[in-house]
Specification:
The structure is a single chain. The model has no long low-confidence stretch (mean pLDDT about 95). The strands form four sheets. Strands 7-10-6-12-13-14-15 form a seven-stranded parallel sheet, with helices on both faces. Strands 1, 2, 3, 4, 5 and 11 form a six-stranded antiparallel sheet that branches. It is about 25% helix and about 25% strand. It has two domains: about 120 residues, no CATH class; about 260 residues, 3-Layer(aba) Sandwich (Rossmann fold). The longest helix has 19 residues. It is an alpha/beta fold.
């Protein structure tokens, strides 16, 4: 592991362990991080369980009561979690079990023919590393101003935007960030109060607030709700995120959802939990971050095709080139500013976790400057929501209209610059 990955992964792993879930890193043959997964478990469709048990005798469904990460929520849709504990005398890891499955299926493996795999790891989705390209910094201006700035005019038509993220910090200073007036959300809990009466800002703290601020600047008339869905240092199990998304949709009925998080997957195959989710929620437009590893490797769920999912990459500060960190490729639908954005953040003391700044402390007073496709995505989600509020179009039609206005930047692709 590299020091930056360690700084982000290890706190997340420890929080999962504290709640009884063991996670691990799968590596490529070259020793690079491939994906993060739950130890001892696979994810599958219920309709495929019998075939999987015939192929890998010993697989068994995990009882709902043993899936503590879900809380009181059901396992969503057609999904089932399978234990591999009884395979090969408990000697196989998840990657080894799936390799054995692939070998047994041979050419009959549906994933080799463009269909979804029969079983996958339970992947860990996260906001950190892959969606925030840097740690937050104090804005250069005093007093700080949002960048991009808020748009004027709220439009005539109501539109709801859901944000699947880390929640909304308590006691926002609306005198400093009035564009967040009326935004609601689950509480993004800060850490203990430190000497000097300022709270500790956790590693992932303020992420959802910043995302909501960027979206609301683009869509001042939108009703925005921010879910606190990534509770383990910015991480969560893929099927738990789907379950929380379904709660958000049922309670808030958003026209579109911003998801500034994701994961890479085994063999780059589609994320099974979101394949199931998108089948059942085809009317929802999901705007998702493309990831921050400067690679063309597909990042999920952003990599699902339009129209249900819109993958957003980041432009650099000059708005003419790809941001140095942004993922890219034919699967990325549009690019938007993602470097040097300024918006609402927590108030408190932040301790830098990544070298070379670690362990420097920085006081924040409600605003931050931040980089990442995490923040390009809500910019696009906000532009779509704003189009709905002014035109009365459906979210799907508004998305098609907004993306149709993108300018093509040579060497980058279609770009939206407010």
């Amino acid at each position: 592991m590299d020091p930056v990955f360690d700084a982000q992964y290890l706190p997340m792993r420890n929080l999962f362990l504290r709640e009884g879930t063991e996670i691990e890193v799968a590596y490529t043959p070259d020793g690079e991080v491939d994906y993060i997964y739950v130890v001892g478990q696979l994810l599958a469709r219920r309709r495929n369980v019998e075939r999987l048990q015939q192929t890998l005798p010993g697989l068994r469904p995990v009882e709902r009561t043993d899936l503590g990460d879900l809380g009181d929520r059901p396992v969503p849709g057609d999904l089932v979690v399978l234990s591999i504990d009884a395979l090969e005398g408990r000697r196989l890891t998840v990657p080894e079990a799936l390799d054995r499955l692939d070998q047994s299926l041979g050419d009959a493996n549906p994933a080799l023919h463009g269909e979804e795999p029969l079983a996958t790891p339970v992947h860990i989705m996260h906001t950190s590393k892959l969606c925030a390209a840097s740690e937050p910094a104090v804005p250069c201006e005093s007093p700080p101003r949002p960048c991009p700035p808020p748009k004027a005019g709220e439009g005539r038509y109501p539109v709801r935007l859901g944000v699947c993220d880390t929640g909304l910090v308590r006691n926002l200073n609306l005198g400093l960030c009035p564009w967040l007036g009326g935004v609601q959300g689950d509480v993004d809990p800060l850490g203990p109060v430190l000497p000097g009466e300022l709270p500790d800002i956790p590693y992932d703290g303020g992420h959802g607030t910043f995302v909501a601020g960027v979206a609301r600047c683009m869509a001042p008339g939108a009703t925005v709700y921010v879910g606190n869905h990534f509770t383990k240092s910015g991480g969560e199990l893929e099927y738990v995120i789907v379950s929380k998304l379904e709660e958000l949709i049922a309670a808030r009925r958003p026209a579109l959802v911003n998801l500034s998080a994701g994961t890479y997957t085994r063999n780059n195959w589609p994320l099974l939990s979101f394949s199931d989710f998108l089948e059942r929620h085809g009317g929802i437009i999901l705007v998702a971050a493309a990831g921050n590893d400067s690679t063309n490797r597909r990042f999920w769920p952003a990599a699902f095709p339009r129209p249900s999912t819109i993958a957003v990459g980041a432009l650099g500060a000059d708005h003419q080139n790809l941001a140095y960190f942004s993922n890219y490729g034919s699967w990325v639908d549009v690019y938007a500013p993602g470097e040097g954005l300024v918006n609402a953040f927590a108030t408190g003391v932040y301790t830098y976790q990544e070298p070379p700044k670690r362990p420097t402390k920085q006081i924040f007073t409600g605003m931050a400057r931040w980089d990442g496709t995490s923040f390009s995505a809500p910019l696009v989600a906000g532009l779509i929501a704003d189009d709905v509020s002014h035109s009365g179009r459906s979210a799907a039609d508004a998305a098609a209209h907004v993306l149709g206005t993108a300018q093509v930047i040579n060497g980058v692709g279609p770009a939206l610059i407010p």
